[in-house]
C-alpha cells in the first residue's frame, strides 16, 4: 500500500521499521516541528524524524496537519492509508478523508482505557497489572475509533513506564501490519472492527512536572507505582525545608521498606548508614539514590554523610 506515516516519539519507530520491511510505499513521514524548549538551545529529540532521514524518506513537519494547505498536500500525496502513532496532533475529518482508507492509529493501551497522550505512564501509575496495545480505525474523536487489533500483556512488578513503552512499541508493530491487511480487503462501507464502549472510557492526560512530586500522604505502594510511571520524565522529587530555602531532592531510586517504625507522612524515620526511610500515609519508603539540586547523583549513604539529616525531619510534597 501507499502509506503516509505520522509520528514523532520513539513509540512509533518499530512500527515504521516494520512497514518498511514489509515493502509498503512511504512517500513521506509527517512529524511535529522540533523547536528548542524554553531555556534550552537544542530542540527536543525527534526519533521518527531521525529514523525517516536514515531511511532516505522525506520528512514533513507542518505546524498543523489540519490547515487547508496541509490538507491540500495530503490530498496530492494520494495515499491509500495514513498510519499514525505517537504523533501529537488530532486529525480532522478533512485530513482523514484525504486517504482512500482513512487512517489507523497504534495506541499504547487497551482502549477505551487510557485515552490521551500518556497511556503507558498512567497504566503504571494506577498500579495496573495488565495493559497492551490497540490499533484503531481513526475518527476525529481522540482515540475513539473502532478497534481493529488488540494485544494484552502483563505489566511486570518493577517495570517503569520507559521500559514498558519500549516493549509495547515492539508488540504493536506486527499488529499494525495485520490491521493493514484487514483494510486491504475492506469495501469502504461495511462495519469494520469493534466499537469502543463509551462507559469504559478513562483518560490519560499528558504528564506535567507536578506529577513527579511525591505525595507522602498516600500509601507507600502508590508512591512506588507513581515513581515507576514518571520515568524518565518528569521523575520523582521531594522538598526538604531546611529553614532558609527548601532543598529540591530528585529521587532516582526508591523501594518499599519493611521497617515497622511509624511516623507522620513525609517524616524521616530511619537515617543511618545506607538506610534512609520515610513514612508514608500507609507504610514506608526507602530512598536508595537521590540527587540534591545542583549536585551529582548520590547513594543514600553518600547523601547521609554529606547532609545533616536526622529522624524527625519531614519532607514536603511541594
Overview of the molecule:
Helix 1 packs parallel to helix 6 (161-184) and helix 5 runs antiparallel to helix 7 (220-229). The protein has two domains: 2-200, Rossmann fold (3-Layer(aba) Sandwich); 209-316, Roll (Methionyl-tRNA Fmet Formyltransferase, Chain A, domain 2). A seven-stranded mixed beta sheet has the order 3-2-1-4-5-6-7. Strands 8, 9, 10, 11, 12, 13 and 14 form a seven-stranded antiparallel beta sheet that branches. By secondary structure, it is of the alpha/beta class. A hairpin with a 5-residue loop joins strand 12 and strand 13. Helix content is 25%, strand content 24%. The protein has eight helices and 14 strands. It has helices at residues 13-21, 47-54, 68-77, 93-96, 119-125, 161-184, 220-229, 300-306, and strands at 2-6, 25-30, 58-60, 81-84, 103-107, 130-137, 147-154, 236-240, 247-256, 268-272, 275-279, 284-292, 298-299, 315-316.
Amino acid at each position: 500500500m501507499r502509506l503516509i506515516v505520522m509520528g514523532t516519539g520513539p513509540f512509533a519507530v518499530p512500527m515504521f521499521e516494520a512497514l518498511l520491511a514489509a515493502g509498503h510505499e512511504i512517500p513521506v513521514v509527517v512529524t511535529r516541528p522540533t523547536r528548542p524548549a524554553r531555556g534550552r538551545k537544542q530542540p527536543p529529540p525527534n526519533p521518527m524524524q531521525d529514523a525517516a532521514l536514515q531511511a532516505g524518506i522525506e520528512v514533513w513537519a507542518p505546524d498543523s496537519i489540519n490547515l487547508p494547505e496541509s490538507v491540500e498536500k495530503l490530498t496530492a500525496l494520494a495515499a491509500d492509508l495514513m498510519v499514525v502513532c505517537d504523533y501529537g496532533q488530532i486529525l480532522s475529518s478533512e485530513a482523514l478523508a484525504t486517504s482512500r482508507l482513512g487512517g489507523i492509529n497504534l495506541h499504547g493501551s487497551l482502549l477505551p482505557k487510557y485515552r490521551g497522550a500518556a497511556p503507558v505512564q498512567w497504566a503504571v501509575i494506577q498500579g495496573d497489572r495488565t495493559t497492551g496495545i490497540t490499533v484503531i480505525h481513526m475518527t476525529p474523536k481522540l482515540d475513539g475509533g473502532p478497534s481493529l487489533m488488540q494485544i494484552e500483556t502483563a505489566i511486570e512488578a518493577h517495570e517503569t513506564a520507559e521500559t514498558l513503552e519500549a516493549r509495547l512499541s515492539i508488540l504493536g508493530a506486527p499488529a499494525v501490519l495485520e490491521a493493514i491487511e484487514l483494510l486491504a480487503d475492506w469495501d469502504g462501507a461495511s462495519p469494520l472492527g469493534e466499537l469502543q464502549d463509551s462507559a469504559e472510557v478513562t483518560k490519560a492526560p499528558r504528564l506535567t512536572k507536578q506529577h513527579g512530586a511525591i505525595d507522602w500522604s498516600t500509601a507507600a505502594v502508590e508512591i512506588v507505582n507513581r515513581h515507576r510511571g514518571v520515568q524518565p520524565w518528569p521523575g520523582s522529587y521531594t522538598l526538604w525545608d531546611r529553614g532558609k530555602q527548601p532543598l529540591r531532592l530528585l529521587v532516582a531510586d526508591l523501594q518499599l521498606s519493611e521497617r515497622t517504625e511509624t511516623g507522620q507522612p513525609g517524616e524521616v524515620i530511619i537515617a543511618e548508614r545506607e538506610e534512609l526511610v520515610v513514612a508514608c500515609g500507609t507504610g514506608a519508603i526507602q530512598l536508595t539514590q537521590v540527587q540534591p539540586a545542583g549536585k551529582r547523583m548520590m547513594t543514600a549513604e553518600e547523601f547521609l554523610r554529606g547532609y545533616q539529616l536526622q529522624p524527625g525531619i519531614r519532607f514536603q510534597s511541594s
